[in-house]
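Appendix B. Raw example, untouched.
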Amino acid sequence: MQDLSSFFSDKHFIESQGNIYGPSQLGAYISCLTHDDFHVEDADIVIVGCGEQRGKGRKLGYSNAPDAIRAELYQLHFWHSNVKIVDMGNVLEGATVNDTKAALRTVLHELQQEGKTVVVLGGSHDLTLEQYEAFKKSQKMINATVSDMLIDLEETEGVTDRSFLMDMLTEQPNFVKHYNHIAFQSYYVEPKILETLDKLRFDFYRLGVVKDNVEHMEPVLRSSDIFSFDINTVKYCDAPTNDNASPNGLAGDESCQLARYAGMSDKLTSFGIYGYAPEKDIHKMTAKLISQMLWYFIDGYHVRQTEAPFVDKDEYLSFYLSFSEIDAEFLKSKRTNRWWMKLPSGDYVPCTYEDYQTASNGNIPERWFREQERLV
């Protein structure tokens, strides 16, 4: 792997803190780029900060959000010494927004090539595009999931935090096999946007649907390579940092649950959190929430287990049934208790126990129906 140090600030956040962390706190455990013992090759999770936010407003300065998050994250107590975490610091601000994005894209691509799981601390939400570009550069087809109260498909001049999905989902050649959108708020989204996503056979989940059954998002994230989280997904009272936030949204604990599902996914290797404005953060509540989301992501990574191949029948419980004149097979992993369903194509896709129950009652699970639509 090429030396990436030239893309980062030569002074790391940790150097301004002194020796203030106890042995069980993350600040004492995480290896940083400026440390003599830094070896990214040994890492399971790599933290990368990028405060670029000119995609939100051309006159906005470089955000201190990544370090504000680190200030809270490093204080948390660490329970999983088998998970190796390194923090590379903050990508240097470029002369133009495209310069910064090119640097971030290079860093993420190199880490993706090395098989690392990367956490990006933004920055504005359009940096999600660089998460995608890291895979595109490798010509790898991916499933992407975004959590945002808005759906950023506006038509604008240049890439912004309100339009980046247009490039990500329509630019050719395209390497997005499937796209999921979690917790959008209907009154902020044009109906035509949802019609467009539906025609593309992409899946989108209203805020109310997610809150009613947040555990149903686990299969969504289990099949994702990328997860991008805009902090405006969280209701204002739980993340009081965004002037444009909504009084409705996910609660803090629900956001942490999504982060844990992302960490549990043995497919997901790119997780970004965006939209945090530290200068507006009342009592640092939003920074605390994001740090706790990261803690749960690490906790999920700790229990991440690579499933046995589906041909290894001894590792699964098999359930055969028929619904709507369709013969189907459902598998339950003995290792993780997670469920899969087998499509007529022979592919196994993640599902929930409720999907199995629906099929047991002779009805077609919505998840099965949507997967079949995408094969047509």
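End of appendix B.
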